[in-house]
Amino acid sequence: MSLKILIPTPLRKITSDSDVVTVESGLLSEIIENVDRLHPGFRARICGENGELRRFINIYVNGEDVRFLENLRTVVADGAEVSIVPAIAGG
């Protein structure tokens, strides 16, 4: 089965302007790798050189922040919705 990843506007130039990418379910780290195979450069925008999520990138699985789950080791089930939300800073 598969799941949908909602792509925010700043990352859509990597995904050929697609706002949704469909990939196979599994560990979040594997899902990011699968999207990167389809759309090279995706992983580099989500993860830092240390392999962890970038500080200002938030990922939600069915509305739950993965930082409060298992982070990149979060198991994402078939049919789940994954949302990527870049943090907005300013004052």
Short characterization:
With 91 residues, this protein is an alpha+beta fold.
In words, what does this structure look like?
It contains two helices and seven strands; from the N terminus they run E-E-E-H-H-E-E-E-E. By secondary structure, the chain is of the alpha+beta class. It has a single domain, classed as Roll (Ubiquitin-like (UB roll)), CATH 3.10.20.30. The strands form two sheets. It has a five-stranded mixed β-sheet, with helices on one face. A two-stranded antiparallel sheet has the order 3-6. The longest helix has 11 residues, at 28-38. The protein is globular and about 40 Å long. The model has no long low-confidence stretch (mean pLDDT 94).
Structural topology:
Layout: E1 2-6, E2 20-24, E3 26-27, H1 28-38, H2 42-46, E4 57-61, E5 64-65, E6 75-76, E7 81-86
Parallel strand pairs: 1-7
Antiparallel strand pairs: 1-2, 3-6, 4-5, 4-7
